[in-house]
Design a protein that fits this description.
single chain, mainly beta, eight-stranded antiparallel β-barrel, 2 helices, 13% helix, 48% strand, globular
Length: 159
């Protein structure tokens, strides 16, 4: 796919010229594949395999110029799901978001549904989008905390 050093190089280019990522190409389900530290170093051993085994995923959907975001993990039939609104800004672009609810469900049955208070404007989470594969099969970004992430488009979510 892509290495951390390639991501850092593309990030430098995106800061100067923008990423060239078309907003409509972001729609869909993205499965987390790898993470790196702020400087492109590997995370604590076991982190990426754990996140992959939990099916960590990001889902983005656009309707009438408004974006929704879902972040979820699964452990067997147990699902933890955060949902909210997102917004794209700038040419890089920056995907800002805020989760408004969290759900825990077991075998499709909701066990818990809670509203989440919105963070202050200074603490709004974001992903600075860096690059997307020419065929749209992977996406890289840097999160608010400084870490890098690589997602792969869910094969069952192909256009």
């Amino acid at each position: 796919m892509i290495t951390s050093s390639e991501i850092l190089q593309r990030e430098r280019q995106a800061r100067l010229l923008g990423s060239g990522i078309a907003p409509d190409s972001l729609e869909g389900v993205w499965i987390l594949q790898n993470t790196w530290s702020k400087h492109g170093k590997r995370p604590t051993p076991g982190t990426d395999p754990l996140l992959r085994s939990l099916g960590a995923r990001l889902q983005l959907e656009q309707r009438d110029e408004k974006w929704t975001i879902v972040n979820q993990v699964n452990l067997g039939s147990l699902r933890l799901r955060f949902q909210g609104a997102a917004q794209l800004k700038g040419s890089r672009p920056l995907l800002t978001f805020g989760f408004c609810s969290v759900d825990i469900s077991l075998a499709g049955r909701t066990l818990l549904h809670r509203s989440i208070p919105q963070p202050s404007p200074q603490r709004i989470p974001f992903f600075a989008l860096i690059a997307m594969a020419p065929d749209g099969q992977w996406l890289t970004a840097r999160g608010r905390g400084g870490g890098l992430a690589l997602w792969q488009r869910d094969a069952s979510d192909q256009p």
